[in-house]
From TrEMBL:
PROSITE patterns hit by this protein: DEHYDRATASE_SER_THR (PS00165)
Pfam families reported in the protein's UniProt record: PALP (PF00291)
Source species: Halomonas urmiana
Record-level Gene Ontology MF annotations: L-serine ammonia-lyase activity; pyridoxal phosphate binding; threonine deaminase activity
Gene: eutB
Designated name of the protein: Hydroxyectoine utilization dehydratase EutB
Amino acid sequence: MDHHGVTLEGLYQARRRLAGETVRTPLIRSAALSARFDAEILLKLETHQPTGAFKLRGATNMIAALIERHGREALAAGVVTASTGNHGRAVAYAASRLGLPAVICLSRLVPPDKVAAIEALGAEVRRVGASQDEAFEEVERLVRERGMTLIPPFDDPLVAAGQGTVGLELMEDAPDLDRVIVGLSGGGLLGGIGAAIKAIRPACLVTGVSLSQGAAMWASLQAGRPVAVGEVESLGDSLGGGIGADNRCTLALVREVMDDHLQVSERAIASAMVALLEHEKVLVEGAAAVGLAALEAHALEHPTLDVRGQRVALILSGNAVSLATLDRARALAGR
Ligand SMILES: *Cc1c(COP(=O)(O)O)cnc(C)c1O
């Protein structure tokens, strides 16, 4: 089966490349959540990755695959991307592990602590312009003029296959899984996991969760083509951003593998973040709490998401959250 370039063989190759570079993360059962939702609730702890998020899988797979295919010399100019968040850290870390130079382009508005965090992972940070778009123009220039290789955050079969190794691990650790609930932005994570699951256990449902505002994938799926939406500040900031006007992989992939799609409010995200910390002792960022937020908002009274009796995995995708943001979440959740 070929899901827009993501094949089962590609997923197993990704898994081989990731061995020793990324963590095979634990899947733990939550007794409290299982009782609360009358289901078997399992938590996939991508927060255990060395960079704190699953994005290390996709970046590592793509860089390692390019080295395999073209040789190290062909990539000597290094890899480049523009991301302040989990993807920037992932590319910096993966490149340094695999012995290639990396440049991360950031706008001048990015706060110094985020710049320092990426530099600490061994990448060169290049600060240009006053927006993410201008930072991306610098990426394109480095690709054109210096022969660097772009590592995109989601829209590539190698990146999606890397993220999809989460799905392979789920199928091994919970072979009778009924549903996986995944945060959805550009669709590399959901698309990759979905490709793995639909190849191995098609009966397992794939539920995507988007922000209620600023969700480009939601609007694009409805329009049937990539749609740009305004960015909105959110506790789930890792789910913000567009899907790319020339999206070639993940929009079609998500449409094919996703069974249902929900949105969650800021308050629901806040409440889920606090609950995961308080009861499960897991610190997650907002984007990683949307699965529990969706259960709390849609699976209790008059459920539109009925998980009763099901075995359900929630992907706790990352932990990039500051104490200030955690305070904001607590204030919004009222706890
Ligand atoms: C990037 C990211 C997501 C969404 O992944 P996509 O592949 O863009 O859909 C979810 N959670 C976290 C923590 C992320 O960094």
